[in-house]
Design goal:
single chain, Aminopeptidase, 34% helix, alpha+beta, nine-stranded mixed beta sheet
Length: 312
């Protein structure tokens, strides 16, 4: 059994929780036609205690590891013992597992490395000791979307509650196929005179993979006269949904279309998952938009290591 096959079995084990963007099926979708693999750390009995899925490529003959497109988090995943650990034991466990992963990364002889670790990873010290660097980045998250009435009361009254309240009675929520969503996303980028950085086939493939597993929805917001105002692809697992690919008709940019669609999507998903992640941004305007929903600021780590500066 290859490492990827063993990792797939771990991801499909209902007793374990592997976050969405680290799932085998997700990596298969976003890395199609490219090379992805996984490093496994084992305990003395041979059981997997940690994993690090990664996308690798080559530039000027030098190998690198970077984040796949549409993948907010990657990096290390720990399989903690079932009987629980004290803080001291947890740090010891993480160091032993991470050291094994770091040795394997070194054996790959990569010239450049960059991955975003999931927000649940709060200890990057083993990587620091191995020469890696860290930048703290931020996402915004609605931690509990199950009580939608309480959630709406947290929205900014002037910027979100009012605009949503005005548009909601004149809006219809629908769902799209993967192809329909990708076509509309491409159209919106064209209408906005923006270069589309997401290949059409990547959007279709990723949406299809999530839809087929019932772990994603392509939402669309139409006006009461049938005009499409916005669309949004939201993948999710049992713990979190993600604001991944928005598509906004520029005619409705200032009419509250996207925030209304977000609200309707959150309500729809409130029985499927626990939280909603806006995927973060370090841009002031976008950060303020996310924060106006009453979302909490959540830090996560971007780890990097560069051996050959010309690759940065």
């Amino acid at each position: 059994m290859t490492a990827k096959e063993e990792y797939r079995a771990l991801c499909e084990d209902p007793a374990l929780y592997v976050p969405l963007f680290q799932q085998h099926w997700w990596m298969e979708a976003v890395c199609a036609g490219k090379h992805w693999d996984v490093l496994l750390s084992r305990d003395k009995s041979g059981a997997v205690q940690a994993a690090l899925p990664y996308l690798s490529g080559r530039k000027m003959g030098l190998r690198y590891i970077i984040q796949p497109q549409l993948t907010q988090y990657n990096g290390i995943w720990y399989r903690y013992p079932k009987d629980g650990l004290t803080d001291s034991q947890r740090l010891t466990f993480e160091k032993q597992a991470a050291d094994s992963i770091i040795r394997q990364l070194k054996a790959l002889r990569i010239a450049y490395y960059q991955q975003n670790f999931a927000p649940s990873i709060t200890n990057w010290l083993p990587f620091y000791w191995a020469g890696y660097r860290q930048t703290t980045r931020y996402t915004y998250r609605l931690p509990d979307i199950r009580d939608t009435d309480a959630l709406f009361r947290r929205f900014n009254k002037n910027e979100r509650q009012r605009r949503i309240g005005q548009l909601l009675p004149r809006s219809v929520l629908t769902t799209l196929s993967a192809d329909e969503f990708a076509d509309y996303q491409q159209l919106c980028r064209t209408l906005s005179a923006q270069h589309n950085l997401l290949p059409h086939d990547l959007v279709v493939r990723t949406c299809e993979a999530a839809l087929n597993r019932k772990q994603g929805v392509c939402f669309a917001l139409d006006s009461d006269d049938g005009e499409r105002m916005a669309a949004l692809f939201v993948p999710y697992d049992r713990q979190c949904a993600y604001y991944l690919i928005p598509a906004l008709n520029p005619q409705f940019r200032d009419k509250g279309a996207m925030e209304t669609l977000i609200w309707m999507a959150v309500r729809q998903l409130s029985t499927e998952t626990r939280s909603f992640d806006f995927e973060g941004s370090m841009e002031p305007g976008i950060e303020q938009f996310y924060r106006s929903f009453g979302a909490e600021q959540i830090p996560f780590f971007r780890l990097s290591r560069c051996i050959v500066p010309c690759l940065t």
